[in-house]
Specification:
Strand content: 35-45%
Number of domains: 2
Largest sheet: 7 strands, antiparallel
Number of strands: 14
CATH topology of the largest domain: Tumour Suppressor Smad4
CATH class of the largest domain: Mainly Beta
Radius of gyration: 20 Å
Helix content: 10-25%
Shape: elongated
Order of helices and strands: EHEHEHEEEEEEHEEEEE
Structural class: alpha+beta
Length: 239
């Protein structure tokens, strides 16, 4: 999706609840003016990666580009915070399109559940027993049996979050790849996961009626804004 340079458009500044973020919001609003997100041409998010994920979910269907500036800790998804020359930086920013994952899950009662995730979707054991999972990609079985705590699928944007904690690979933000990472794998003992080009469909199936497990979209990555598109609006990153 192409984005026209933003030079004189209305800007909405939104911030997380931390003191650094709210103070930055007040200073930037005084310098550049500010409008409500509904009336804005571009949204500037001030906070950390968790707040950026919340903002992406909230405005996923709005058609508005989102430019993040780091007022948190890690800031993998954010640009460096600077107060000067903001409009020029918005105009020079390179658009990045993030592709969320869609999770379709069936519970033990046969009910269907759907959620969207920008970071990752995980399948995790729900009892003291290890999970026994069979993994298929594009309707082809890739791993007949995985025994462990579970498995996750991560996007490049989420590769430095839970995926990294589970010893998964860091993926370049623009790479057309997904990380498939086991969580505390027991067998295959030395399998550390795989990197795959974006598959159309993946499936992890457990033993029906035994070894219960749960599908999980992590709290900071949960879609709380209703149905989502499969391609959210671009995030503006610095060149």
């Amino acid at each position: 999706m192409a984005i026209e340079p933003v030079q004189h458009g209305a800007i909405a500044f939104i911030a997380s609840t931390t003191a650094d973020a709210t103070e930055a919001q007040a200073r930037l609003t005084k310098l550049y003016g500010g409008v409500d997100p509904e009336a804005a041409d571009i949204i500037v998010a001030l906070g950390g990666d968790g707040f950026m994920l919340q903002t992406l979910h909230r405005f996923m269907n709005s058609g508005k580009p989102i430019y993040g500036m780091n007022r948190g800790s890690v800031g993998f998804l954010m640009n460096e915070f600077r107060e000067d020359g903001l409009r020029e930086r918005l105009a020079a920013a390179v658009p990045s399109t993030l592709h969320p994952l869609r999770m379709d899950a069936h519970d033990a009662m046969g009910n269907e559940h759907r959620a969207f995730a920008i970071n990752e979707v995980s399948l995790f054991r729900q009892s003291y027993q290890t999970a026994k999972l069979r993994i298929s990609i594009d309707q082809q079985v890739r791993l007949e049996e995985l025994i462990g705590d579970g498995v996750l699928v991560s996007t490049p944007a989420g590769s430095t979050a839970y995926n990294l904690s589970a010893h998964g690979p860091i993926l370049p933000i623009h790479a057309p790849l997904l990380a498939l990472t086991p969580i505390s794998a027991f067998r295959p003992r030395h399998w550390r996961g795989a990197v795959d080009r974006r598959a159309r469909a993946g499936k992890a199936a457990g033993q029906r009626g035994r070894r219960p497990h749960r599908d999980q979209v992590r709290p900071k990555d949960r879609n709380q804004a209703g149905p989502a598109r499969q391609e959210p609006d671009p995030v503006r990153s610095r060149p």
